[in-house]
C-alpha cells in the first residue's frame, strides 16, 4: 500500500521566493521576465509550473535554484537566504541540496552515462548509495546503456540519464524543466510516476515546468504563470481540469 503524505499547508518550506523580479535589458528592449512573484515550495510537495512560452517559467526556476541572479526580491532554500551567500557557498548549496533536470540535458560528453549520473556526488566527495542508484537506473531503463557516452544515446535516453543524475543524490529539492518533454508517453509516465512516488514515499520535493496537462496531473498542485506573474493555482490537479484552465486563459488572452 502506498502511504499518502500529509501535505499540510503548514509543512516546512523547501524553497520560497518573495517579491521576486527579474528584468532583462534596459529601455525599449527591457523585458520583465518575473514581476514580483511570491511562492512557496513546501517540503514533500510536487509542484508543476505551467504557462505560455516566454511567461517566465524557466527564469523562475533558475532564480529559485540559485542558477541565475534576480533584480529584486528574495529567495531562500530551506533556512538559507541566497543573497547572503558568496559565490562559493552558493555553488556548494546547489551541489549539496539541489537536483536539476534541464531543458537541455547538460550531460558531459566525455563521461559515460553512469559517470554522468554520479558526477555531482563524485565532485562533492560523497559516496553514492549504490542500492538507490541502481533502483533509479532500473526504473529509468538505463541498465544496458551505462557505459555509453551521451552522443551514443538517443535524446530520450539522454533525458533519462539527466533525470537519474538529479535523483541519484536524493537532493532536498529537485527542479525539472520539462523533464519528460522528449520522452515517449510510456517512458514519460514512468518518470513522472517515479517522481511522484519519490515525493509520496520519500518526502522528496519536486518542482517541474511542463506544457503537458497530463504531466501536470501527477503533481500535488499547479501554478500558472503569465507575463512573469502567478495568475492561478490549482490543487490536486486532473489533466482535464488543467486543460480547461488553460483554455480559459487562452480565451481571455484573445479577448483582452
Ligand atoms: N538572457 C535573456 N535576455 C533577455 N531576455 C530573456 C533572456 N532570457 C529570457 N528572456 C526573456 O524572458 C522571458 C521569460 O523567459 P523564460 O525562458 O523564463 O520563459 P519560459 O516560460 O520558460 O518559456 P518556454 O516555455 O518557451 O521555455 C521571455 O520573454 C524571454 O524572451
Ligand atoms: Mg523555459
UniProtKB/TrEMBL annotation:
One Gene Ontology MF term: ATP hydrolysis activity
Protein origin, superkingdom: Bacteria
GO cellular component: membrane protein complex; plasma membrane
Keywords in alphabetical order: ATP-binding, Nucleotide-binding, Transport
Stretches assigned to the ABC transporter domain: 15-252
UniProt cross-references to Gene3D superfamilies, sorted A to Z: P-loop containing nucleotide triphosphate hydrolases (3.40.50.300)
InterPro entries, alphabetized: AAA+_ATPase, ABC_transporter-like_ATP-bd, ABC_transporter-like_CS, ABC_transpr_LolD-like, MacB-like_ATP-bd, P-loop_NTPase
One Pfam short name: ABC_tran
SUPFAM superfamilies xrefs: P-loop containing nucleoside triphosphate hydrolases (SSF52540)
PANTHER family, per the entry: ABC TRANSPORTER RELATED, IMPORT ATP-BINDING PROTEIN
Name of the featured protein: Putative ABC transporter ATP-binding protein
The species this protein was found in: Streptomyces venezuelae (strain ATCC 10712 / CBS 650.69 / DSM 40230 / JCM 4526 / NBRC 13096 / PD 04745)
Lineage, broadest ranks: Bacteria, Bacillati, Actinomycetota, Actinomycetes, Kitasatosporales
Amino acid at each position: 500500500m502506498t502511504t499518502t503524505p500529509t501535505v499540510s499547508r503548514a509543512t516546512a518550506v523547501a524553497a520560497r521566493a518573495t517579491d521576486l523580479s527579474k528584468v532583462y535589458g534596459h529601455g525599449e528592449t527591457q523585458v520583465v521576465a518575473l514581476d514580483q512573484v511570491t511562492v512557496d515550495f513546501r517540503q514533500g510537495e510536487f509542484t508543476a509550473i505551467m504557462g505560455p512560452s516566454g511567461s517566465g517559467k524557466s527564469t523562475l526556476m533558475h532564480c529559485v535554484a540559485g542558477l541565475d541572479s534576480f533584480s529584486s526580491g528574495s529567495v531562500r532554500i530551506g533556512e538559507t537566504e541566497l543573497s547572503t551567500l558568496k559565490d562559493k557557498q552558493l555553488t556548494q548549496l546547489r551541489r549539496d541540496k539541489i537536483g536539476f533536470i534541464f531543458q537541455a540535458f547538460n550531460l558531459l560528453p566525455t563521461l559515460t552515462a553512469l559517470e554522468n549520473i554520479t558526477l555531482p556526488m563524485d565532485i562533492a566527495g560523497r559516496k553514492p548509495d549504490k542500492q538507490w542508484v541502481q533502483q533509479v537506473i532500473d526504473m529509468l531503463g538505463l541498465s544496458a546503456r551505462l557505459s555509453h557516452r551521451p552522443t551514443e544515446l538517443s535524446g530520450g535516453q539522454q533525458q533519462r540519464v539527466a533525470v537519474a543524475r538529479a535523483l541519484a543524490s536524493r537532493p532536498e529539492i529537485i527542479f525539472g524543466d520539462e523533464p519528460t518533454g522528449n520522452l515517449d508517453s510510456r517512458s514519460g509516465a514512468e518518470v513522472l510516476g517515479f517522481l511522484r512516488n519519490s515525493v509520496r514515499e520519500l518526502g522528496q520535493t519536486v518542482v517541474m515546468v511542463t506544457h503537458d496537462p497530463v504531466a501536470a496531473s501527477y503533481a500535488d498542485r499547479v501554478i500558472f504563470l503569465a507575463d512573469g506573474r502567478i495568475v492561478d493555482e490549482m490543487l490536486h490537479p486532473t489533466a482535464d481540469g488543467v486543460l480547461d484552465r488553460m483554455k480559459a486563459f487562452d480565451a481571455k488572452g484573445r479577448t483582452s
